[in-house]
Prior knowledge:
The structure holds three protein chains of three kinds. By secondary structure, chain A is mainly alpha-helical.
Amino acid sequence: MKRHLPLILLILAVIVVQLLTRWTDTAFYLTPLTMTGYYSLVIVGLCLLMGYAGQISLGHAGFFAIGGYLSAMLTTKDLMPLKETLLLGLCDKLGLLVQGQDMLGVASLQMQPWAACGFAILATIIVAYAIGIPVLKLKGHYLAMATLGFGIIVYRLALAFPLFGEADGISGVPGFPLLPGLAVSGDFNSRVSNYYLAWGMVALVMWLLVNLIHSRVGRALRAIHGAEGATNAMGVDTARYKLNTFVISAVLASIAGIFLTHYNGGIGPSEAGIMKSVRYVAIVAIGGMANLWGALVMGAVLNIMSLRGMFGSYDDAVFGGILIVIMLFAPQGLLGISLSATFKRIFRRGE
Amino acid sequence: MLLDIKNLYRRFGGLQAVSDVSFSVRPGMIKAVIGPNGAGKTTLFNLITGTLPPSSGVIHFKGQPIHGLAPYRIARQGVARTYQNIKLYPGMTALENVMVGRHCRSRAGFLSGMLSLLWTRKEEKAIREKCLELLGLLDIADLAEVEATSLAFGQQRAVELARALAMEPELLLLDEPAAGLNIYETAEVARLITKINAQGITVLLVEHDMSLVMDISHEIVVLSFGEKIAEGTPSEIQHNKEVIRIYLGEDDAED
Amino acid sequence: MTLELFSQYLLAGITYGIIYAIVGIGFNIIYNTTGIINFAQGEFVMLGGMISISLYQWLPLPLAIGAAVILVMLIGALVEILFIRWLDRPSVLRMIIITIGISILIREAALHVWGEGVRSLPYFVGNEITTVPVLGARVSPQVLWVIGVCTVMVLGLSLFFKYTLQGKKMQACASNRVAATLCGISTKNMVTLSFMLSAGIGALAGCVMSPITYTQYDVGTGLAIKGFTVAILGGLGSSMAAVAAGLLLGIIESFSVSVVPLAFQDAISISLLLAILFLRPHGLFGNKDAADLKEF
Ligand SMILES: Nc1ncnc2c1ncn2[C@@H]1O[C@H](COP(=O)(O)OP(=O)(O)O)[C@@H](O)[C@H]1O
Ligand SMILES: [Mg+2]
């Protein structure tokens, strides 16, 4: 299967990198690598939406934040005062709650990470549909502004509610036990397993998305990008296809938010900021828009550099600059440019 | 009646682009819509396919009302079209373009697509074979892997036609299929339309090339400034005073 | 609500509203000549404030403001020449991303030059505690400066478009670019001019508002969203409607403070933006048929 060759390379690269960090005694690299893996989920989801379905979203950090914040809140905040409410009573009966103790030894009540994860994803799906139905009727600047507006609202709400920790965000988020012996957490001893977990999820998502873009649905999405009206006249329910794609990419962002929050043990408002959304868009653009592998590779490179602090205080400026340069000189993405063609173009312009 | 249009109106601001148009299309026929530029022919097609909603009036397809439905619903009922200004998908090969037309005749969804189930792979293969066959029918099988928008004009027209045929429509709307083609290509188009029609597909055709229209169509509707001014067989239309006046101008008609 | 409080809210609403209107008009001027929404519009306002504050160390206030406005106009021209002028029929998506990138670069440059701190120009007349009575309320004279200067700008612009040759040429570009080119108007220069003009009015607004609202490196994004809301409310492209829409938004926002916490103020105007986009994308005063013809 030719189309899955890159997937095999990805898996090999993931293993080789882990072995390298072990031999060279640089296992501290695994932490930014794991975080990069989770950010990659957002990026490939956005790539599907922007590159294939052709719909820009300047609010994807909002979905990341919805996932991260909800699961953080539900697994850390004391739900004891709400114990008598119907919903919590039901959760209790279903065994979704855990008894714990706060710092003073007072009994407190939190939600199980699995349940919190479920709630967060459910909430993301609901919000994505509620926003997506009206927003995706818009085009061009209107769509960009509307999604940007959505992102800003999420950011403001995260900052405004004490429940979400205002400017400090939420910390002290517990690990997320997935399987016996495998928990999503920043625990020093589970660094290797978390690294494989994150990149295993990336590989799984890549397999699903690569299959999707080579299917009947993927073809319809590309057609929508090319000529929406004509695609509708071919019998494609374009509104539903755009909406489904939007929801899928929102859920991927949300899952990334949930896992990364458990991994980092917390989340802050900067994860919901506009600059984060713009950064995701920038990476998709650099990867070449309709190029899942390009987005994955460029995202991995840039995120690791950024997480290792290589851009210093120019982090945002670097992404802004990259965005402009790519859009000016190589709208097909960095991996899509053919150098000779570019030279030819430049010389022709000069004549 | 396969298609039945009654008292159809469409306004754009102050402009009445289609005004009180009624006619019907019997199954199996080739019917042509002619009229000067700006007469409202393309608008009429947009109304039938649901691209534009009518200001008022009704359209029935196979006895069911279709006015006001979304284009994809109308397409799924068996109406396919080509465009006057070709609308192919850039960045996709000719074959892929045609395969999009197969959409309403296949069923793999998001989930089955992602999981690449056995039956979806089989379906995908069947789509590909059917579309290659259609490209062969239009003599462009060798262009299957070329990017569609980089093809020559006539070839793009052919790809668009193949895409419409891939839908296996009952009614095929062709908007100026011979525009921009030379006489040989036009003759080829005429032959193709007849061949398609012989396979049982009803054709509604907008065309400026009168010899083509008169040759192959069974009935003709004439529009002028949005209104229907005549309808009948080719020979009736050729002898209609009103039509001659419009096509030749006031003065000539008086001679 | 007492009459005094009412007047207080109303004047605050008008003050902010007219600034939003200026940003909205800035969007419209560029949109009309290019079909582009310039996401960096809010940054021009921020730059106006910041540059004048810096120049004020060496120059008297009017000169500092004048020089700041001219500098920002040059920056506007530079942005157009560097990033926009030579693109051959770029797609909307590409233009969105480029102007967003420009806004980030300007903002980050401002962060590195001026830091994160909040700055402001001194009050043009008196100081923080000087007030004048208006409609039963006591307001800072700076409020009158803002309203006055912005009103003069709006009137000046409408005279410019009506009566000067350059203004008429820009209108011609707006209504039909191809026809304008055929008449020998250099549309490219008109585009540069439109960037200079909208940078200039934004910068001047940024100067007069600085004493009341303060200036920080990241105020641009908020202003851009508000200004865009206003431009859409007024039906993209129409400047006079943008003024009405700006005042409306400013007043709604200012009165909403009495009902909901300040932290939600932005959320309110953004929700309004979303509601307008969903319900009446052609604007409150716009015409749907005309809007259908715009390039979206
Ligand atoms: N989307 C539209 N908006 C406004 N006017 C339109 C639109 N589509 C067509 N028209 C106008 O309607 C009239 C009929 O156009 P059209 O149907 O394309 O004519 P034809 O195909 O017969 O040449 C023309 O005057 C055209 O300008
Ligand atoms: Mg036509």
